[in-house]
Amino acid sequence: MEYRNFTMSFSKLQSGICPKKLHENIVISDDTENSIDEDDCEMDDEDISHNDNLKKMVFSSEIFELLNSFKLASSFPNLYMAYKSLCTIPATSVSSERSFSKVKLINIRLRSTIG
Fold first, then answer.
1. Which of these, 80, 76, 78, lies nearest to 65 by C-alpha position?
2. Is the backbone of residue 100 left (phi > 0), alpha (psi -120 to 50) or beta?
3. How high is the pLDDT of residue 65?
4. Is residue 31 part of a domain?
5. How far apart are CA 48 and CA 40, in angstroms?
6. With helix as H, strand as E and coil as C, how does the chain read?
7. Which residues contact 23 (CB under 8 A, 6 or more apart)?
8. Residue 84 counted as domain residue
9. What pLDDT, in 10s, does the model give residues 82-94?
């Protein structure tokens, strides 16, 4: 069952439905003249790798949507759970810290009214 589900989903992926969505064409403008000195053409390795990284950037939420839309969760349950937790866990802990500080204030008020 899982294998059949995976093969059907994989054939849809190969046909190009979703890779077009994931890998958008990022055009890096290359406005250069034909006669350029060699000194002007020097690019650092960091700049080249940075441009390559721009072309390959995919967000985790897009991969999670891909797993949901093609029903790949049954084929890859561990991957699905990992992306589900990655997308639902907040990047900061501000809301939980704020909740704990409110609880501390309530405890202080209760202690002051008891004694």
1. 80
2. alpha
3. 86
4. no
5. 15
6. CHHHHHHHHHHHHHHCCCHHHHCCCCCCCCCCCCCCCCCCCCCCHHHHHHHHHHHCCCCHHHHHHHHHHCCCCCCCHHHHHHHHHHHHCCCCCHHHHHHHHHHHHHHHHHHHHHC
7. 58
8. yes
9. 999 888 887 787 8
Residue type, 59: F
Name the domain count of the chain: 1
Q: What is the pLDDT of residues 12-61, one digit of tens each?
A: 766 665 555 555 554 444 544 444 444 444 445 555 555 555 556 778 88
What lies within 8 Å, CB to CB, of 47 at 6+ separation is none
Using CA atoms, how far residue 7 sits from 13, 35, 69, 72, 85, in Å, is 10, 52, 14, 10, 26
Please state which of the ranges 18-27, 66-75, 77-86 shows the lowest mean pLDDT: 18-27
Domain coverage including residue 53: 2-26+44-90
